[in-house]
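Need tokens for this chain, all 196 residues.
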Amino acid sequence: MFANRYTVFVDACTLVDTMRRNLLLTLAEAEFFRLRWSEEVLDETQNAIAAIRTAKSQADAMEKATKARHKMQEAFEEAMVADFDDFRPVCAGLPDQKDVHVLAAALKAQASTIVTENLRDFPSKVLGPLNIEARSGDAFIADTIALDLGRAGAAIRVMRERMRNPALTADTLLMTMDARGLTATVDVLKPLLRLI
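Here are the structure tokens for all 196 residues:
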């Protein structure tokens, strides 16, 4: 439906957070948009998940991070963007050169949006002329849900019902989202509580 028209490139800093990742993947699975990432993004995501788990003294941190990565890749086999080096010269104006690979891959994928928590690293003065925007995970998720509240609510309900460790009620899910800084998303979902 929407997925045929709108492509989104997701940065590692957004994928690292479990709740943001689950919401984005759920909405992509429901075909609100086409999801794209690169090996570099997945490497960064995997390493960050492992580091977070290690800092919490969780056993098998890298193994669990690798498993999360493989699940994402299996679910979205078409999401991988490669061979984007030709786009790197266009990205020279970014404040942090470590982010060049994100913009280059997004351009190769013809993405309309980069979903990232590092908005300051993707200024509109650089992205605007390239016809691409940067949005935070919260803002992007909230706006995506607002496109079709019923369909999004149903997809998020399926996501919630998949959660087993621990299982969450709709109220608890929204409280968890709020605690993770997904305030705009919570505001959009509150009226849909009975659907999720």
